[in-house]
Amino acid sequence: MEEIITIILIMLTLLTIFCLYKILNKRGLYFALVMMDLISFVLSFKISYIFKMNINLGIIPLIASFSILYIFLTKYSAKEIKSLLLITLYANITAALLLVVMNFFIPAITETISINMQGTFEYNYKILIVYPIIVLLSQLATAKLYVLLKEIQDNNTISIALTYIITGLLYTLVMYAIAYIDIMELKFSLFLGISTYILGLVITGINILFVNLLNNKKVIK
Amino acid sequence: MRNILLIVAEVLVCYLAIIILNKKYKTDGLYVYGVIATFLSCIMSLKQIDLMGVNVPIGFGVTTSLIIAGNIITQKRGPEEIKTYIGLIFITALVSCCFLNLSGLMKASDYNLYANKSYDSIFEYNLRVYIALIIATIVSVFLNSKLYYELKKVRNNVMFSNIFSIIIVELLDNILFILIAYLFEYELINIILCIILRYMIKTLIGIIGTIPIYITNKFN
Known about the structure:
Radius of gyration of chain B: 18 Å
Shape of chain A: globular
Oligomer: heterodimer
Helix content of chain B: over 70%
Number of domains of chain A: 1
Number of helices of chain A: 7
Distance between the termini of chain B: 37 Å
Mean pLDDT of chain A: 86
Shape of chain B: globular
Low-confidence stretches of chain A: none
Strand content of chain A: under 5%
Order of helices and strands of chain A: HEEHHHHHH
Mean pLDDT of chain B: 89
Structural class of chain B: mainly alpha
Number of strands of chain B: 2
Strand content of chain B: under 5%
Structural class of chain A: mainly alpha
Largest sheet of chain B: 2 strands, antiparallel
Number of domains of chain B: 1
Order of helices and strands of chain B: HEEHHHHHHH
Helix content of chain A: over 70%
Number of strands of chain A: 2
Strand order of the largest sheet of chain B: 1-2
């Protein structure tokens, strides 16, 4: 069941990017990136058990956000990447602030969702704090490394794969070491990070096909 | 008192985000705000607070600011541009609902079990609230934009257009949202009180929303 939902979610990320890009071109990529970042933010609070591995679900839309960066860098100017990443930072900070505000509301006595929201967002407050910064840094690193690798050799598939292998590993080490301090032992959080990283490699493989497909289409500036 | 202060904080964050995004990215910034606010309203609307003995769902600032951002777009670009904004709200709401609900159905890991179980409980069986939110938001943003534009044609005054359009459309927005989300779930008197309380708060927030419209208009 979990595996099927994972595949549906991966397909959904690709479908969203494709639709927004088809309808709104470059602006569509901006909106899709913000959407994927926000979904990844909230999904990163959930750890599921997929393919007999513990996986942080935030990885699915996060890889999609990297794919948006690859499409953007291939089709448009690399100079605009700063503006693209800044907009995601604003979005993540706004989301984090509003989630914090939401948590502090005194709930109605008869409802139970507030306790669950506290259990999700307040209990994992470190994710709320570190996610916007770490995602910004990892996306910046992804963009820089991808451009560098493309300059060295012109193969898109190799560039994307190598970019994720390096930046994904850095993201995993930093994010999982910080986000779960005091919640679980360091070795468990690193196990979680590594298994999530491995699934990330598979999703990157699927996304490479999608990026190559989109990049072969006509550029609309 | 704490809840009132938090509503003020929520409104401040929302309107500041609108002003900053509009200043940095013009109309595209407002679209991005639409994505952010729609996504967050999908989560915030699930929580309820107690107001005068009545359970009222929160997300007052987030949902009202979506209408205000729509008004700014109408003010700057005309009513035609609102179609893209509504389309974006629809896509965001649909994708968010799919992701949040499907992820809630996935088996929780033993790692960080407490948080995982809490997450699942938030996003299970809330389809009715999501549908209510999507319908109410889209209808109210569309009607508000039309009304705002018509009022602007009658008298080119930001305050006049915003206040009158908000007063009318918020009533419809709250009736639609509460009836679709909670009819037959609570007693009729509670539903009516919930509509009135939510309408009062959201209308007030919408009227304060004249300030960001005025600032963004002046900045242009």
